[in-house]
Amino acid sequence: MKTVSILSALFGLTLAQYDTYSAPFRLVLSSDDPTLNNTALGACHEGAAVEGLCKTNQTTSDPPTFYTTFYQATSSNSGSTYDTPSILYYNLTISSGTQIPSAMRFSQDYTSDVAIPLFMPGNSTYTPVYVDQDCEELYIPRRVDDSVSPPNPLAPPEKVKSWYVCLTKEAYEYYTLVWHVGGRGSPANPSCEEVQVRRVFT
Ligand SMILES: *[C@@H]1O[C@H](CO)[C@@H](O)[C@H](O)[C@H]1NC(C)=O
Ligand SMILES: *[C@@H]1O[C@H](CO)[C@@H](O)[C@H](O)[C@H]1NC(C)=O
Ligand SMILES: *[C@@H]1O[C@H](CO)[C@@H](O)[C@H](O)[C@H]1NC(C)=O
Ligand SMILES: *[C@@H]1O[C@H](CO)[C@@H](O)[C@H](O)[C@H]1NC(C)=O
């Protein structure tokens, strides 16, 4: 017991329980490019039971479809879905009609400067994302600025929104959402267009 409580005290912060599920929402882009602005991202096939987040032709005026519907899990302890880590989920529908909750994680090839969000069944691996209370946009907090020496702890953390839509080749060539690793400058991929990703409840 003692060991357990010492361990919980040591690791309490990292033992967040993602036990509260949100209402369904769409992930809608904001962009200077009018062909991307206000379009919803859609789950797209990137392998057996693997989906990426692809550009679609659907705008907020179109009705949501199953492949543009996502939800998130946060900790009940946080009391809010804002500015707290969350797991982003897509429900994969298999042939029996069963829905398989699939958590989002970044797939990173260390020779590329973009990471590709992918959904896979289960939640054993996930990349936590946050929602900015001021604008409903997804971000990842930067807690240490390592562009200066010595590295500078940031309190509060900086809300980094390093999202782009680029022609990628995970399994297939698609225009997908990516995360520009590091969040400074632009991705090397010349097709990338900067976007913001907004949570819009359906
Ligand atoms: C993963 O999902 C299961 C339900 O299938 C849930 O009990 C568990 O708490 C989840 N784990 C995380 C880290 O969210
Ligand atoms: C994108 O959409 C928003 C809201 O509909 C609008 O205010 C903005 O002007 C649009 N931007 C562009 C570049 O079309
Ligand atoms: C989206 O619209 C473009 C232009 O009208 C069309 O070429 C393309 O096939 C459409 N894509 C989808 C997924 O409907
Ligand atoms: C996702 O699937 C789970 C388990 O089948 C179900 O309880 C939940 O209502 C579904 N959520 C959405 C948004 O489809």
UniProtKB/TrEMBL annotation:
Superkingdom of origin: Eukaryota
Cited InterPro entries: DUF7907 (IPR057229)
Domain DUF7907: 22-200
Keywords, comma-separated and alphabetical: Signal
Signal peptide span: 1-16
UniProt protein name: DUF7907 domain-containing protein
Source species: Periconia macrospinosa
